[in-house]
């Protein structure tokens, strides 16, 4: 391959990965902004989407029905997580929520390991046509599906939050839950909705990436961490999270291609640590200026 074709190939790979990171980052944002819960089970929603699709597809269902059923089951699991595990906590703190969701993620992962085994799984691509050649680089149709899903999710959520009454009420709750409650907004129902939405989006991300990267019981942790990185760097907003996800994917693609694949996962965590350090330093400086 020429240098140009390598650059194009790594960019395609980066945009595909970045699209998944962005969707998972949006899952983090929708739950955290409304409820204040750092939902570490987010990665397991991604895993459940891919694994349940394989289960239903392997059982003989057509792929579209398997996808719909997998998303539905993941949404139900996310709702049960909020109702049974999150809501009964009497004196919640961020640490309590974090530990509860980490424990829930471990339980979900263990159940999948016992029932489905430790082998990686895959399903057939959604579009079964020949790969597209772009100046020596190869673009597989499933990569177009992944990026297309990100575009649809982003535009759909932006429309929902900005132009529907329910979406505007959700935004109001994310800004000030007490004020929203005083004007009659049921914040608890919104939190339940956001957990369900996160389950649907996470499952969708896991489904569309499965024909490319495979799926398994243990993929949830890294998916969750990278989604958390882009959510934090993107300022917990939809637009910022999408840009951060695509940027992280492109950086990973070029680093893995030109340097080493061993740096791929460490890079995301390094970016998060550095961002949090600089954010803390900036906060300390502003605080000293305000209170000399």
Summarize the structure.
The chain is mainly alpha-helical and 292 residues long. Helix content is 77%, strand content 2%.
Could you characterize the architecture of this molecule?
This protein is an all-alpha fold and 292 residues long. The protein has a single domain (3-290), classed as Orthogonal Bundle (ABC transporter involved in vitamin B12 uptake, BtuC), CATH 1.10.3470. It is built from 11 helices and 2 strands. The chain has helices at 3-35, 42-58, 63-86, 94-116, 141-163, 165-175, 177-182, 187-213, 220-233, 238-258, 264-290, and strands at residues 132-134, 137-139. Mean pLDDT is 84; it is low at 286-292.
Overall residue-averaged pLDDT value: 84
Rounded to the nearest angstrom, the distance between the terminal CA atoms is 59 Å
* CATH topology group: ABC transporter involved in vitamin B12 uptake, BtuC
What CATH architecture label applies?
A: Orthogonal Bundle
Strand count: 2
Characteristic key phrases:
disordered C terminus; 77% helix; single chain; two-stranded antiparallel ribbon; mainly alpha; 292 residues; ABC transporter involved in vitamin B12 uptake, BtuC
Topology:
Blueprint (H helix, E strand, L loop, with lengths): L2 H33 L6 H17 L4 H24 L7 H23 L15 E3 L2 E3 L1 H23 L1 H11 L1 H6 L4 H27 L6 H14 L4 H21 L5 H27 L2
Helix pairs in contact: 1-5, 1-8, 1-9, 1-10, 2-3, 2-4, 2-8, 2-9, 3-8, 5-6, 5-8, 9-10, 9-11, 10-11
